[in-house]
Amino acid sequence: MNPRRILASLAALLALGLLLHGPIPQWASYHHFADQRGWLGIPHAADVLSNLPFALIGAWALWSVRAQPRHDASLAWHAFALALLATAAGSALYHWAPGNASLAFDRLPIAWACAALLCAFFAERLDARCGSPAALAAALLAASASVLLWWLSEAAGRSDLRAYLFVQFLPMLLVPAALLMRLRPRFAAAAPDMAWWGVLLGYTLAKGLELADHAVFDQLGLVSGHTLKHLAAAGAALWLLAARRISCGSPR
Fold it and tell me: pTM higher than 0.85, yes or no?
């Protein structure tokens, strides 16, 4: 069967599953994070400051991508680097004063990062057109719309995360499926399989730590699950970008 049809079918099944499931509300205690400690006048300091790695990795990635030869996925990788920088700012803003208003600025760059990453992956492995300005713009617009739909549902008093969850988990579904189908890189500078499996593992770990925020803090005392979630997600991005840089043969 054509890999494109398989991937499109998987995306359609995910969308159908979410549609049939019905609204998925944001739980009431979402903004009540385990680590409430401040430091040097910074509220919720650990959750705020643990976003610094996203800024550092995003800046390094932006410089790294610009220093490499241009190819079909270059624009998408630029967008991913910028999304990491925006994630650092948006997440720090949210954790400074948690609430639905600031959460929109946290979720928006995360959705952009997911969209850009999927465009980069498919541009490298499936079709150069996936990395085109038009395709990337459409993906980023859809990602933005998913956050807007959640925000509007909250404002209307009927919280529904389905569109945002679709954008967030689509790469977690399609990337491993494509890797298992042996979709090989179309050029030498593409990120290797190991890099993609690593980022999937890191992101899965990050989601687990997010859900175990209070349990981790109760056990460790010094650090919460949400703080570790930021570090795990940033580490996954660094793993992917570093592996890709090595594959490009760039000087260190």
Answer: yes
